[in-house]
Specification:
Number of strands: 0
Order of helices and strands: HH
Radius of gyration: 16 Å
Helix content: 55-70%
Largest sheet: none
Strand content: under 5%
Number of helices: 2
Structural class: mainly alpha
Length: 71
């Protein structure tokens, strides 16, 4: 288990990075040019699934990190 844990953590972290980059939030580039809408709305459809998957993979990564000294 000790030899596989770092590879599992790397795989989870790559998936987590991709999920974070897929999330869309509000104004994107417009806020850097002075536009502020302040509207985020509710998560629906694919955005909600990506958000839930991000939370799940984040929790898995934290649990694996905390378990790594034990194994």
């Amino acid at each position: 288990m000790k030899t596989f844990l770092p590879f599992i953590q790397i795989g989870i972290s790559v998936i987590l990075i991709i999920l974070v980059l897929l999330q869309q939030r509000g104004t994107a580039l417009g806020s850097s040019f002075g536009q502020e809408s302040g509207f985020y709305g509710t998560l629906r459809g694919a955005e909600k699934k990506i958000f839930i998957l991000t939370c799940v993979f984040g929790a898995i990564f934290i649990i694996l990190t905390l378990l790594s000294p034990i194994f």
